[in-house]
Amino acid sequence: MNKDNETFGIKAISNTIKERKFPEMLNENIVENVRKFHLSIEGYRVTPLVCLDGLAKELGVSKVSVKDESYRFGLNAFKSLGGTFAIAKVICEKLGIDLNHVNFDYLKSEDVQKKIEGMVFVTATDGNHGRGVAWAATQLGCKSVVYLPKGAAQRRVEAIREAGAQVEVTDLNYDDAVRLASKKGEENGWYLVQDTAWEGYEKIPNWITQGYTTMADEALEQLKSDGIQKPTHVFLQAGVGSMAGAVLGYYVNKFKGKYPITIIVEPEKAACIYKSALSGDGKPHFVTGELDTIMAGLACGEPNPVTWEILRDFANTYVSCPDYVSARGTRILANPIGNDKKIISGESGSVGIGLLSILMEKTELKELKNSLGLNEESVVLFFNTEGDTDPENYKKIVYDGKYPSIFNEY
Ligand SMILES: Cc1ncc(COP(=O)(O)O)c(C=O)c1O
After folding, report:
1. What is the mean pLDDT of the chain?
2. Whose CA is closest to 177, among 322, 320, 299?
3. Could you give the dihedral angle defined by the CA atoms of residues 16, 299, 355 and 404, in that order, rounded to the nearest 10 degrees?
4. Where are the domains of the chain?
5. If I label 255, which of 188, 288, 324, 385 is the partner at 20 to 30 A Cα–Cα?
6. How far is the C-alpha of 381 from the C-alpha of 209, rounded, in Å?
7. Strand, helix or coil for residue 98
8. What gap in Å lies between CA 256 and CA 238, rounded to an integer?
């Protein structure tokens, strides 16, 4: 399928790119060093990879594995992987040392603390990235300032404050909040640690992207211990696309030409990667306006231009989904089948599972399912990138069945 095609509000476009740029910044050496750094952080644990055999049988695939990042550093989301690595790199750069030769404890040492006293980190966030930055800055004795877009959930705001940041909820959307954080950083001499790049601001976002690879690497190791060398399919949800680019870019490095079929999933109101793929000109394209979706972590209208190139060159298919797809995924993971384990998955973590369930169930989507080669032999990997970071909305979805799967309306 290589045209804009819509069924039940789900739109998909497949990749038709001919030339590819190899993602060298996510090579195996770098991933190993990132992992070594994370290992040195007190409280680091490998997050669970949950195999949902009951669900796999129900859906008609061989395996469904969910990497549950709600357990990451007790912060309920994967994002701190990027924030910690980037902040550590910024500090090392300032001190003129190589992060590969030191560890997190060294950065917390009195000697270093004296040298970095007064450093302030600033960022904009829907919630999860800001919490990670605040947590890392506090651990290292530094201050942080975090800007949130309008409508940010109360619990997400509180969680960032509790992690030690000065927090301001703006009346801007995510992309404009990023511009504000950048401006404030320049005015005040603060270090901008943003999870997306733009021309002239790539180094720190690239470190953040590299930081995310730890979860991708852990997942492969965990699959291996289950006797699986690699998944056949990976569903990756995208906001600006840094996380998806990190995972896919690393798997391209790891598996060379034989990397898994990768599906990029976005909310329809903020589907900037989908829009960019649809344009066919190879360039990133923006979605502007309200970016109104329950998937707050994915409510980003401007792709990270660095990771966009990875998604453009190596993803198989780009899918735009209405909110009900994510709500369905949340409910599926909250209601395990047979001996499956329950997973608490927030709105930005569950959309991939919701999509797989619809693809496997609805004959109207057979063409897309077949084009992806999804069948009883498929081994499918997901990243549950957050738990119930907005517990009120989580409850509405699970208790009240809010955002139902209203197939008739389409
Ligand atoms: C829970 C969650 N999942 C996925 C993402 C998407 O990450 P990216 O913006 O790098 O695409 C985010 C981003 O904030 C998030 O918070």
Report:
1. 96
2. 299
3. -140
4. 5-78+206-409, 80-194
5. 385
6. 19
7. coil
8. 23
CATH 3.10.129.10 at 80-194, yes or no:
no
Q: What is the pLDDT of residues 190-238, one digit of tens each?
A: 999 999 999 999 999 999 999 999 999 999 999 999 999 999 999 999 9
Q: How does 138-150 read in b/e, with b if 16+ C-beta sit within 10 Å?
A: ebbebbbbbbbbe
Q: Is a pLDDT exceeding 70 seen at residue 4? A: no
User: Does residue 334 contact residue 50 with C-beta atoms inside 8 Å?
Assistant: no
80 CB within 6 A, ligand 1: no
Inform me whether the pLDDT recorded for 406 exceeds 80.
Answer: no
The domains spanning 5-78+206-409 and 80-194 adopt the same CATH topology:
yes
Q: Over 70: is that where the pLDDT of 5 sits?
A: no
The response to whether residue 320 sits with its C-beta less than 6 Å from ligand 1 reads no
Residue pointed to by tokens 């990670």: 132
Q: Which residue has the tokens 């197939």?
A: 407
- Give the pLDDT of residue 9: 95
Q: Is 402 a catalytic residue?
A: no
Q: Is 293 in the pocket of ligand 1 (CB under 6 A)?
A: no
Query: Is 5-78+206-409 CATH 3.30.300.20?
Result: no
Ligand 1 center to 388 CA (angstroms): 14
Q: Are 345 and 329 in contact (CB under 8 A)?
A: yes
Q: What is the pLDDT of residue 1?
A: 39
Q: Are strands 379-384 and 10-14 parallel, antiparallel or unpaired?
A: unpaired
- CA atoms in the 13 A half-sphere facing the CB of 98: 3
Report the predicted TM-score, pTM, of the whole model to 2 decimal places: 0.97
| Catalytic residue of the set 11, 63, 67, 79 | 79
